[in-house]
Amino acid sequence: MRTRIRRAWSRTLPLVLALVAWSAAATVAAKPPVGTQQVLIIQVSPGQIKKIAARNQLTVLQTERDLGGDDLALVSLDAAGTPEQTAAALVARETVIEKAEPLREFRAPDVLASAPVEQSPGAILEAAALEGTIDLGVDPHGEARELWIGFADQPSSQIIRLGEAHSRASGKDIVIAVIDSAIDTEHPVLASQLLEGRDFLQDQGNGSLRTNGNGNGQALALLDQSTMAILDQRTRAVLMNAGGIEAFQVDPSTSVLVEAGVGSELAGQIGPAFGHGTMVAGIIHLVAPRARILPLRAFDADGNGNTFDAVQAIHYAAREGATVINLSFTLDDDSETLANAIAYALSWGAICVASAGNDGSSVVVYPAAAPGAIGVAATDLADFVAPFSNYGGDVVELAAPGVSVITTYPGGTWAAASGTSFSTPWVSGAIALLAQRAAQTGVPLDLDRALAALSHSAEVNGSLALEVGYGRLNVIRALENLSLEPSVAAGNGNQ
Questions:
Q1: What distance in Å separates the CA atoms of residue 54 and residue 49, rounded to the nearest whole number?
Q2: Which of 54, 200, 296, 481 is within CB 3.0–4.6 Å of 309 for a Cys-Cys bond?
Q3: Which residues have a Cβ under 8 Å from the Cβ of 86 and sit 6 or more positions away?
Q4: pTM for the full model?
């Protein structure tokens, strides 16, 4: 599995790093035919965007600088034909355009109706009924952190041996970028570990759910009210599924779910991805409690995003010193611009971890299948591949728990969720632990070394066991094998 990444990366890196000798001369382009409004991403040599836009009647929407020093531009134009045909024609007319591709849209995979989640809530009920807290490291001020035991000691953290791993590493001072929907920056579990971040949908600082004006203020106000039933973190849980959010309370006398009435109050006020970023960040924090989380908003509360915003966010994360970049989103079509952004991140020393998607098949999705990215599938609490999870060597390097995962939710509450979006952050957090140990021991951590350590995983059960890369994440084994030199793929369940 690591061979796919290494070989593909070795082919891609020289192309990305090469400085292209652009021709100063450009032919005057013919006026494009009038058609429908299309949006493209183009890559050109520095200083050429305005000239190209004028010759081709393009409207420049945004610009960004890529790894080789070229300019990326998001442009719109009226054109006939498909966006792919328009992009190809533009490259053919303009010799100073290196490449052009249509702007591609994506959605968070866990909010798609085509990826239903069906499993028993038994593990959630058991954890939600637990009372008490446990210490989990210290905050940046040196104060002990106490977390609800139902979250900190949930089954998913137990099976990856997280408690043992924390005796060796906590992710101290490692920066993990979360490219997702907005995060609730005032959640008491997350607040002390969050950096300011950025909102790429509104092109402003701070990727916070509380400042982005995304239309969910009323829902957040409801969740913030201390009288709401779901706010008691020891006896309440929120269940999120592919159809959106349903709020429940746990009746401690019977340990069954009963409707709390909160769901009806929130109905129609939140998008299906409301809280998605907060949930991903919570899992990362659980794995690497002393890592700093950089919230980068690149899709909205409905789970919608596009490749240009994602590319900008990846570039920003790399420049801000992120060691790990969590990408819990998928798109069906390959994007060379997105692949180059992952190459850009690697050149800055950042490792990208991406969700494999929830189609329940071997379909190839991106960015998980992009060269240099670590694709993550989901397993259940019995170490079988989750029925919704994608699989296959073209998209998956590793699996992690992705069923009945308990995590943080906006308004100081908790949620339980299933999906590859929520298996991915376990691996992102684990790489932060590896990065801390690598810095302490003087071992340089790069993509190959991280994969070599992660390859010492746990065996996956069932007929798809060999279709999820190295197997299921085992954090303590990864830490124990960090010093080993990268070698041929270790295989599923290697001891």
A1: 9
A2: 200
A3: 32, 38, 40, 77, 79, 80, 102
A4: 0.82
